[in-house]
Amino acid sequence: MMEDPSILKIGQNIKYDLIILDKLGINCQNFDDTMLMSYVLNAGKNGHGLDELSQIYFGHETIKFSEISKINNKKTTFDFVEVDVAMRYAAEDSDITYRLWEVLENELKKNKLYSFYFYIEKPLVKIIKDMEIRGIKVDLEILKELSKKFEKKIIETQKLIFKLSNTEFNIGSPKQLGEVLFDKMLLPHGKKGKSGNYQTDVKVLEKLKSEKNEIASELLEWRQFNKLKTTYCDGLLSKENSITSRIHTSFGMASTSTGRLSSNAPNLQNIPIKTSEGREIRKAFISEPDSIIVSIDYSQIELRILAHVANIESLKAGFKEDVDIHSLTAMDVFQVNENELTKDLRRRAKTINFGIIYGISPYGLANQLEISNTEAKEYIEKYFKRYPGIQNYMNDTIVSCRENGFVTTLFGRKIHIPFIENKIASRRNFGERSAINAPIQGGAADMIKRAMIKVSSYLKKEKLGTKMLLQVHDELIFEVPKDEVEYVPKKISKIMEGAYDPIISFSIPLKADIGKGLSWSEAH
Question: How many CB atoms lie within 10 A of CB 108?
């Protein structure tokens, strides 16, 4: 029945069930997923878990798994739950899922979103299920060595912090840290939060660091190495699967408002790439002996989408001629010619380019470039003067979002922006920034999802040994057998560059860069 394509199977977060069935040798055909149906309909508006959807659509409070999986107040697994209790829980689960499907299918059709669900979200379920089962090979020895190295660095930094503060305390405790910084050392910017403790987040420490307080630099260093050791080295070591000797992440298909996938248990999308230490962790992700790791990633896809939707002719021409876009922006905005262009001007232009996508404020830009608010305001004004289409795009998007409560990507994904009409200015500003960014980030998410579907179809059709392992925002990571390395990555790159076809007509060429190596670090 599960493998019969003429019988529709309906599930809530069905990827989970497909993984279980796969382990039993069952290849499920023809299914719908109520979680994804809700996600396409109401991304950004509400959650897509069964309990929440049951409340929204039927006003019905479901039996919670946490309530039935306890014996004498101790957590237990489902096989220990009494049969009649398990039956009521499971029957309600199925009943609510089916009722939701009836409602959501109609809603999708009514809102003209059914084809988006059918052609973009649904085909990904099997592709991601296979990626999760496949996992990625990790060299545990590299991780163990790095863990020791970071431990050493943590101890050294800790000693220096104790010396600078003249006291020993638990650096990992925000309460103790706040007392040391603001009560004992009397540093500025001491501000207490709702809990009554001083705020000691990154923003506070960065501000202290910019004012040349050495202890703030060391604290940021300590936090960085502590995270690298605990989250990445020790965290990844604990996640290795003893049967496959690989690490298997779980991709969240309905957990971001913009359509991006998330990665959990462990999160492989968050491994730092800007620091040399973060890149060292990527060295631990390796290929099988007869294969290599290939990373193919979209070059500046969000800027390309912005140039397309805002119709910026000079940026579009720059992308078509494959010039360095940040240098082009620097010359445009700072009115310099190629001979006068400096590395610093290019860096500033790059920060503005990416900042604009996220609706950066003069204060935010001033912080990032370490310049005054006035200077940052001037830069943004110059940028909008040079590219008026971007300012128009932003204004039009905010107005349209206020009227409708949502924004739409090039591919037709609907993203609800809840704070756009909020009376509190900070929330409303956040809503406006989200409205500006969502169609851009969401468009990039749709593009790589389209690419994954097309690439998967190509690999299957040609019966190739190349396997898709990970998706990290604008990048796809593959394990490619050595005898396919010469031609398969090039073909995949071409497929990715044409991912939008035939759904939309895109006015700028996409570029997918190929990297190869024995590890993820070498390939990217």
Answer: 19
pLDDT at site 245: 87
Per-residue confidence (pLDDT) for residue 12, from 0 to 100: 98
**Dihedral of the alpha carbons of 29, 31, 35, 41, in degrees to the nearest 10:** 130
Is residue 50 within 8 Å of 96, Cβ to Cβ?
yes
DSSP SS3 for 412: coil
Binning the chain into helix, strand and coil, the percentages to the nearest 5 are 55, 10, 30
Q: In the chain, which stretches have pLDDT less than 50?
A: none
Cis peptide, bond prior to residue 266, ω within 30 of zero: yes
Coil, strand or helix at 377: helix
CB of 21 closer than 8 Å to CB of 2: yes
Gap between the Cα atoms of 432 and 438, Å rounded: 10
The Cα–Cα gap between 285 and 143 comes to 10
Tokens representing 352 are 């503005």
Look up residue 177 and give its amino acid: L
Q: Give the pLDDT score at 207.
A: 87
Tell me whether strands 9-11 and 31-33 are parallel, antiparallel or unpaired. Answer: parallel
C-alpha to C-alpha distance for 2 and 97, rounded to whole angstroms = 17
- Are 492 and 257 in contact by the 8 Å Cβ rule? The answer is no
**Beta carbons of 292 and 482 less than 8 angstroms apart:** yes
Residue 133 is encoded by which pair of tokens? 């089962």
DSSP 119-152: IIIHHHHHHHHHHHHH-EEE-HHHHHHHHHHHHH
333 CB contacts (<8 Å, ≥6 apart)?
A: 349, 352, 379, 382, 383, 386
CB neighbour list of residue 141: distance below 8 Å, 6 or more residues apart: none
User: Which tokens is 444 given?
Assistant: 């990039």
State the pLDDT at residue 367: 83
Neighbouring-strand partners of residue 98: none
Query: Among 120, 100, 132, which Cα is nearest to 17's?
Result: 132
d(CA 416, CA 407): 6
∠ CA 292-297-298, rounded to 5° = 160
Residue 480's SS3 state is strand
Q: Within a 10 A sphere around the Cβ of 224, how many other Cβ atoms?
A: 18
pLDDT score for 194: 86
Contact yes or no for 296/492 (Cβ under 8 A): yes
- Supply φ then ψ for residue 396, to 5 degrees: -60, -40
> What contacts 93, CB < 8 A, 6 or more positions away?
12, 50, 62
CB within 8 A of 478, min separation 6: which ones?
A: 293, 294, 295, 296, 466, 467, 468, 469, 489, 492
Both tokens of 466, joined, read 């190349």
- Helix (H) or strand (E) holding 414, with range, is strand 414-416
Pairing of strands 475-481, 136-138: unpaired
308 burial type by CB count under 10 A (0-12 exposed, 13-18 middle, 19+ buried): buried
Instruction: Determine the pLDDT at residue 274.
Output: 81
